[in-house]
Design goal:
heterodimer; A: mainly alpha; MetI-like fold; two-stranded antiparallel sheet; 24 helices; 1% strand; B: Rossmann fold; OB fold (Dihydrolipoamide Acetyltransferase, E2P); 2 domains; 6-stranded mixed β-sheet; 5-stranded antiparallel β-sheet; 11 helices; 21 strands; 26% helix; disordered N terminus
Amino acid sequence: MATVTTTPERPDRIRSSRLRLSGRTFLFSSLLLMVAFLVLTPLTLIFINSFYESETVGARAVFSLEGWKSALTSPGIRQSLINTLTLTLARQSIALVMAIFFVWLITRTNIPGRRWLEFGFWMVFFMPTLPILLGWVLLLHPSYGYLNDLVLRLPFVNSPPFNIYSWWGIVWVHLLTGTVAIKVVLLAPAFRNMDSALEEASRISGASVLGTLWRVVVPIMLPAILVVTLMSAVISLQAFEIELALGGRAGVDVFSTIIWKFVKLDPAYPGRAAALSILVLAVMVPFVLLQYRFIGKRNYATVTGQYQVNLTRLRRLRWPAFSVVMLFIMMATVLPLAFLVTGTFMKLFGFFGLPNGSFTTEHWTRVVTDPIFSASVKNTLVLGGSAALLGAAWFSIIAYVIVRTRFRFRMLLDFISWVPWALPGVLLGLGMLWMVLSIPIFRPLHTSTFVLVMAVTLGTITVGVQMFRTTFIQIGQDIEEAARISGGSWLHAYRHVLLPIMAPTVVTVALVTFVAAVRDISRIVLLAGSNNRPLSLLQLDLIRDESLEAAAVVGVVITVITVGVAIVAQVVASRISIRRR
Amino acid sequence: MLFASRPRHWRGGSSRKVDPTGASDPGLAELQLSQARMSVRNGERISVDTTEEAALEQPEAVVQIRGLSKSFGSVRAVSGMDLDIRAGEVFTLLGPSGCGKTTTLRLLAGFEEPDEGEIAFGGRPIVSVSRGISVPPHRRDMGMVFQSYAIWPHMSVFDNVAYPLKTRRVGRDEIRERVLRTLKLVGLEGLEDRPGPLLSGGQQQRVAVARALVYEPRLLLLDEPFSNLDARLREQMRVELKILQRELNIAVLLVTHDQVEALSLSDRIAVMNAGNVEQMGTPDEVYSTPASPFVRDFLGRVLVLPGIATSQVDGTATVTLAAAGHQQLVCDYNGAAIATGQSVSVAIRPEVVSVTAGAKGATSQMNSIEGRIEALLFLGDSYECRIEIGEEQHVLVQVPRTIKWTEGDTVVLGLPREHLTVWPQ
């Protein structure tokens, strides 16, 4: 009897579940297709166009192997690739030593004010690049750099020792604008979660403080150090704006500046830019695959077992150590910014002793009253705001599908979200440009802010998805299920359980995307025109035109926007997490 | 250098004497001590007083702590501590968590700086707040086993154990020889190439011990060394550590909250509470004649019976119990002065209480009270028995399973006079 009564219900149930399943599958598949289209189309177009030569991007092209020939044989291009690698190697190795030392000081020792110092590294990490660079131009310019002036006053010094327009100048600015700070920020949690007994066992076994750091702390932290270095190396290989701003005068080109020249300068060689891009991708892919494997393997399990963190006592070296860390943070923030602000009030950038007084407010009035400036501010805010909103929504959905569903192609989605990580910004911009220009329905988007939003959002997709992924994994399926079993609908569970727990991550991802958008240059430099140009590109153009005073004014504005938003977001995020407790 | 200046006899045996004059053999004292402890367990009391012998010996103090204090904020973790650790003894700091025992150990190792006080190690001052001396941990030449064992995961067993010799710049060949010898000593022969993370809990502990011992320090610090092991392994490692300690004749400072560990391993125990040493003495002393209610209650189980002192003459008090039909108990006492008529409590360890079936006879000479079995829990080797001795008054004792007990039976509890202690309320 029982079987008879239940039989009619069965097909219904199956049909409904199948329907629901296919509905979800359809949704996820379209998501996958959209991301894949946005990521892969530019790449494909670059590849195809590497076999063509045309006058500009998107113009009529003829088949030609000239691009490849030039990419493989031109000594200039070869030199640019060598520069890319040597610059990366130099600053990664210096930054690694500095970062390990700094992160150890602020997490494992009783250095004074270590929380503030860590916050300082966050600030360094968030500082926009070009304003800091401009500040350092004032300090290290070969003819009027302030530090050169100071050193020249010493006896026996006859020529200015520093020149920011040089290979080492590029390394120096990179070290101060993130290469060190990103490592410190990313390594700090790993360093903090180490059992102090491992260090103390070394101390009581006869090793000094530094001996313990070298023989025990660093080897134990090696997996984390490797992942972070790999990540930082990928970012270094993609560097663009510092090289563009300083490399021209120094005669140092990297591949990204060469691609920019091939596209932007007359005569343009889009085919060569494309061929070089493919070559660069080939160099990049192994790094990224390696990193993809490392991150995939990473164990997310929270640290269990009992351990204590007892800080290593630095004794007499406490304050000297503090001074060293503080000096670095100051050199990467307050010092260049102070000079930048001073620079905006100078009649002639860098010249402190002019006969009729050196200072003026003329640059501020000139820049601020210029309609180009107000348009750029608006473009920047629209770009940053849209990218932040779009990114937070988009990345959270992708991460949710990857972590929480059984969607068949979720690993493919995960992999595709990693592809933009391997794409140098200039390359991504180049691909997007080709996509907009060669696919007719996208043509109206050319020089629209929307294209810029897409470019910067795609650029941060990897980091954003990873951040949400980690949060979803940490939250654990059971919390969501517990909410649902307690009787709430999916939406109710999402709204009242998942969202509050995730809120700090949402704010952080939105903030990271906003800051990336506001300071971004490499991804949008090939896409933007005069009508959608944000502040960062305005500043770059001003630097390249040698209107350093006006560039400094724009730099101050960019810094204020970035730091302001970062502080607001920090406050919001900490409020939310306090309420959570 | 270090090795040459401090010859030590790994195999123990003939030259185990600590006293340089050779006047007495501590091994004998140890033997008697363990006998004494055994007999306490059997419920009898023998008259060998091991403390006196220990006092006669007076071996040199390896560690001397004077007036040591340390506060964390407003919490006084250690206040005004004085203690000596003698050569070749196992000295234990016992107490509940937060009593300051770990802080004391960390002050001794050099991981914390005291607010006041001095520590001398091997006759050399290593800490003196007034003189501004503080030798960093890596120059203190102590061995330490951590609660988590702190086996470095990036090194093999060999490298873990070799580390203290490498930091002391011992030659390659000598390192190899000494590491292998130490690994053999702790029973880890053949495991030297195994990576740190692939060790079981017991093996990790052995590596930690080997690493602490390999450079032959004069003092071994043990921070809750057994708390991460399961019960059976804990017992085994306890015995092995005791044997090893005898063999090497090394001074040990053990920090533990486990009274069984403390009683079974120690030559002397300092029971700590809220930063103070409540009592210091041999395990037998602190167990049998606790100096304070805290020590009494912390070390093992205890039955406490309230009553009123009705007379006291020459160290003997008669107490009328509040329960058990106002039965009188005669007790020896040598603690605080007790006045007639004062409210007191009588304490006794449950294992010396005898339980006999049947009602109390009129001829009973021993202090005894009548009770009724309220609940019986079969434990396998014995029964746990809750006995009601009056309204709202129960005692919990273990009784052998050889007698067939039934709930509701009337029984007589024998409370031997020499085991009863009287405490003012």
